Amino acid sequence: MKATCLIQNIGELASPTGNRAIKGKEMRNISIIRDAAILVDQDTIVWLGPASELPALEGPNPEFIDAGGKAVIPGFVDSHTHFVFGGYRDEEFFWRAGGLPYMEIHSRGGGIASSVKATREASLEQLLATAAPRLEQMLKLGVTTVEGKSGYGLDLDTEIRQLKAMRILEASQAVDIIPTFMGAHSVPMEYKGRAGAYIDFIIEKVMPIVIENSLAKFCDVFCEKGVFEIEDSRRLLKAAKTMGLEIKLHADEIVPLGGAELAAELSAVSADHLLKASEQGLSEMAKAGVVATCLPLTAFSLKEPYAEARKMIDAGLAVAIASDLNPGSCYSQSIPLAAALSVLYMNLSMEETLTALTLNGAAALGLAHDRGSLEPGKLADMLILDAPSYLHLAYNIGMNKVGRVIKKGKLVCTNN
Length: 416
Ligand code: NIG
Ligand code: FE
Prior knowledge:
single chain, alpha/beta, Urease, subunit C, domain 1, TIM Barrel, 8-stranded parallel beta sheet, 15 helices, binds fe (iii) ion
């Protein structure tokens, strides 16, 4: 067998398996191999198993990485973030901590609107300069693929600038970036009270440019009472699908509006947040194969009850967990805290949590065929933990247990 890299002395190799979203009780079936080794050729895993069964190698000696008896897991796939934005909303965080509701700040013209103002004022260079360190931080935390949304421009130029920033960053650092067009993140001041007219503008004037320049894979919408309600969301997402984008929704976050049902009706790849999703909506999502993305850091930051991820899995859904890093509702990319909240407050097992952060995250981006698990044929995106077991990801609460990050077969980050 030919290999460019051999990772040896792996105390515990832990990974979900499969090429698609893992649903329901199968989420707890992860493969665990002790005293393991992995062979990588270029960017792809070609073999893994017990070190005692390592196949004979041909050709030049591979690069050798000693895992030091530690655990190895797949790279995290953070399938929901808004990491490109101008300015901050630090004051707002403390207003909310003092009891002011998120939507009240939003309807008084703060919230997303403040980030829109700051992002419109930011040049491409400024957006790059603030987003790049966020990505670097994610890589240190073990994120090897991240989704990023536009939606702090809400005008043609700024939406395109945000998406271009992601394209430039994608080419200049290690983390793979999957861009989502989210022009329908909020109704901008210029269209106050005219959400329908704004959706027309997005469909007619912005989306065609996004498509022509291949700037996004997904289209997303903040489907929420007082923002974009079901009819406007449906119209936007149908148009996006017709133009060739895959679709996602911010659904049933603040009030139960029927976003989960809409996600099922339109065969969205994922519906995200779902704090207030109805049982009916969730069961329709399960039937339609929509990934339910839970964002426990946002619930934590907004002091809201967590999404009912336990019930979702028990009802047969595929659950992914993502950070939702953004300047407002959740200024955190802490995968370690998300893992702890998943276990302690969403009542998922560590195995389900691992599947949600890796393979189901990949599925939420339509990428489960080539990443999200450690198996021959998949990309060599993996983490050598600074811990003997994947169990420490939640157990050592809020701490970064990632020692080294291998992205597409190359060691790209060493934390210790
Ligand atoms: O996913 N809910 C809407 N969008 C973001 C928040 C954006 C913001 O507050 O800036 C979210 O939570
Ligand atoms: Fe979000």
